[in-house]
Amino acid sequence: MPPRARGWGTTDMLPRESRREVVIPAQMRSKSGWSDVTIRNISPHGMMLLAPFPPKPGSVVEVRKASLALVGRVIWVKGKTLGIQLIERLNFNALLRAANEGWAASQVHAPSATHATAQTASPPDADSSGAMIGWLLAGVTIVFAGACAAITLWQV
Q: What sections of the chain are H helices per DSSP?
C-alpha cells in the first residue's frame, strides 16, 4: 500500500521533515486579530513560531512577511511556541526573499545611529556666512550647468 500524501486530513505518521533554523520577525492573523510573531524554523510543509498569545490547535492562521502570505493550521502549542502545518508547500527562497525585503524596508525607514545627528539639507542661517557662500556657489553652479545645456541643445 503506497504511503498517503501529506495533507490536512492525514493521520499517518510520516518521517519528520528536515527543518531549517531561522529567526524571522513576521505577523500572524488568527481569530483574535494580528500579532507580531517570530518564525523559528521552517520545513517544506510547516513552521514553528513564537507568539505572545498562540491560538489553539486546529485554528487556521495567516502568517505574513513583507509581500508573502502563508496560510496554515495550528497543529500543536506548547507555551508561547506553536507548530503550523501549511496548506501549500513552503518556498524557502520566497520566504527568505520576503525576509530580506522586510529588512531592506526597515533600513530605508529607520534612520541609523550614525545619521541620527546629521543635519538635513536646508539653507543655512544668514549669520553663518561660510555656509551661505557654499549654498550660493552650489546655486550658481546649477544655473551655469543649465545654461550650458540650453546653449548646447540650441546649437544642435
A: 92-109, 113-116, 129-155
DSSP secondary structure string for all residues of 23-44? EEEEEEEETTEEEEEEEEEEET
Q: Classify each residue of 110-133 as buried b or exposed e, where b means 16 or more C-beta atoms within 10 Å of its C-beta.
A: eeeeeeeeeeeeeeeeeeeeeeee
- Measured distance CA(11)–CA(3) in Å, rounded: 11
79 backbone φψ class: left, alpha, beta (φ>0; ψ -120 to 50): left
pLDDT top residue among 28 and 97? 28
Q: How far apart are CA 32 and CA 39, in angstroms?
A: 19
Per residue in 89-113, pLDDT tens? Answer: 988 888 888 888 766 656 555 444 4
Q: How many CB atoms lie within 10 A of CB 70?
A: 24
pTM greater than 0.85 (yes/no)? no
**Which distant-in-sequence residues (6+ apart) come within 8 Å of 3 by Cβ?**
12, 14
| 3-state SS, residue 13 | coil
Q: Return the percentage of the chain with pLDDT > 90, whole number.
A: 41
